[in-house]
Write a structure and sequence with these properties.
Helix content: 25-40%
Number of domains: 2
Shape: globular
Bound molecules: 2-acetamido-2-deoxy-beta-D-glucopyranose
CATH superfamily of the largest domain: Antithrombin, subunit I, domain 2
CATH topology of the largest domain: Antithrombin, Chain I, domain 2
Largest sheet: 9 strands, mixed
Number of helices: 9
CATH class of the largest domain: Alpha Beta
CATH architecture of the largest domain: 2-Layer Sandwich
Distance between the termini: 69 Å
Strand content: 25-35%
Length: about 400
């Protein structure tokens, strides 16, 4: 090959790579934007104390719906996610993200799944079932919606199988509308892993935590002395807050714990200032220091009814039998989404696996190291470093609830 041609090929492949680099950067940003909006919406409408949601899981299920949506239903999903699932770069990006999640050590359990429960007998487009089979651990389940009890049992069994088990999920019955075919959209996320630096069981003590309403509760507070990424930031109204990064084993996922620095600053002032810009600023401008970290042990699971949340984010037509357009799933049926359930579950403990031993009370030696103590309501998020995906975002206002 003459040198000119070789150079041309080289340049072209550079451009291509750079192009997808920019696109990846943009996708990271879009994912984070979606995560922040989702969290802020939940905080506003659900008014719960503790809260956890998996933006990656909800986005994956919306992506799946996008394959089957047409017209305005498609546009609403595209506008909310910021991307089009038919785009090859998007596909590769998602594939890389899921590949890395699945390729974790034995000590990590990540279950990100989404399912569409569709009325038995609905003629499905082969193109859609093919796309669904390749998309983000999704599956299509057939059910008979006229048999409410069997359907709800089937859905809640699927949820239990794909999360950590435990409490059975109550599936609300959708209203069957004659002439329309129902879909139930379910997305789940379960996470359990080991910290890169373990908290020692013997260091866990019962310490006070000032909950959202000002009352003091005694909680098991874990402790470790470690080199962590640490940063102090300010909201636009000059309220200070502190961020600490605690990596999980393997370094691909970290938990960021965000807490107002000042006792009198409410968590809500940070929540309202959260944005993808602030998150990317924090994650890129923290400093490594050795410090004493105190974090309560907690376990959260939240169910969210996405029928309340998604319309606030701009996705509403898919819930409306007269507006939903899922001709991409089935050409000859009037499909709409009657139920949209999301369940997220996370457990935060000393080593990742809960030992059944009695924890010893120890008095910590006084040290002169800086201290990060999550003894008041805090925000947390789990982020996959390579994709910037927010696997979880939530808040703890009372670790005992
Ligand atoms: C949220 O909950 C608090 C306490 O439970 C209550 O006082 C407040 O009115 C609620 N706000 C909304 C918007 O429901
Ligand atoms: C899985 O992880 C190992 C070790 O980190 C790495 O060498 C391997 O390339 C990864 N495989 C995939 C498919 O990402
Ligand atoms: C996908 O699902 C399979 C089986 O349910 C599970 O083993 C795997 O961990 C899941 N992958 C992710 C990334 O959640
Ligand atoms: C769904 O259930 C109803 C009531 O039990 C039954 O009449 C109908 O044949 C079932 N449909 C399918 C496709 O199995
Ligand atoms: C369905 O469940 C409800 C409430 O659990 C129960 O009262 C009803 O008898 C059940 N119906 C059938 C057909 O099993
Ligand atoms: C940050 O929060 C403060 C107090 O809640 C608010 O006044 C300000 O407008 C917020 N700034 C942004 C950029 O959201």
């Amino acid at each position: 090959m003459p040198p000119v041609c070789a150079l041309f090929v080289l340049l072209c492949s550079c451009c291509l790579n750079q192009g997808s680099c920019h696109m990846y950067e943009r996708l990271r940003e879009l994912n984070t934007e979606f995560a922040v909006k989702l969290y802020q919406t939940l905080v506003e409408i659900e008014n719960r104390t503790n809260l956890v949601v998996s933006p990656s899981s909800v986005a994956s299920s919306l992506g799946l719906m996008q394959f089957g949506a047409r017209g305005n239903t498609f546009t609403q999903i595209e506008n909310t996610l910021g991307y089009n699932v038919y785009d090859e770069t998007v596909h590769n990006f998602m594939k890389a993200m899921h590949g890395e999640l699945t390729n974790s050590s034995q000590e990590t359990t990540i279950r990100l799944a989404c399912a569409l429960f569709i009325q038995k007998g609905t003629p499905l487009s082969a193109q859609f079932t093919d796309a669904a089979a390749l998309w983000a651990n999704s599956s299509l389940q057939l059910t008979n919606f006229t048999q409410y009890n069997r359907t709800t049992t089937q859905i809640s069994q699927w949820i239990t199988k794909n999360t950590g088990g435990g409490i059975q999920t109550l599936v609300p019955c959708g209203l069957f509308r004659p002439g329309f075919t129902q879909i139930a959209l379910v997305s789940t996320m379960y996470f359990r892993s080991r910290w890169k630096t373990k908290f020692s069981f013997t260091d866990t003590q019962t310490l006070p935590f000032i909950s959202m309403d000002g009352s003091v509760v005694k909680v098991p507070m874990m402790h470790q002395t470690a080199d962590v990424n640490y940063g102090q930031f300010e909201t636009t109204s000059l309220e200070k807050f502190t961020v600490v990064e605690l990596p999980y084993l393997g370094n691909s996922v970290s938990m960021f714990v965000v807490r107002p620095t000042d006792r009198n600053t409410p968590l809500s002032s940070i929540e309202s200032n959260l944005s993808s810009k602030s998150i990317s600023l924090w994650t890129s401008s923290m400093k490594r220091i050795k410090m004493d970290v105190f974090l309560p042990r907690f376990k959260l699971q939240s169910h969210s009814d996405l029928r309340m949340v998604l319309p606030v984010l701009g996705v509403s037509d898919l819930f409306d039998p007269s507006k939903a357009d899922f001709k991409g799933i089935s050409e000859h049926s009037n499909l709409y989404i009657a139920q949209a359930i999301h369940k997220a579950e996370i457990e935060v403990a000393e080593g990742g696996t809960r030992a059944s031993g009695v924890t010893a009370m120890v008095l910590l030696k006084r040290s002169r190291m800086p201290v990060f103590k999550a003894d008041r309501p805090f925000l947390f998020f789990l982020r996959q470093a390579s994709s910037g995906s927010v696997l979880f975002i939530g808040r703890v206002t009372n670790p005992l609830h």
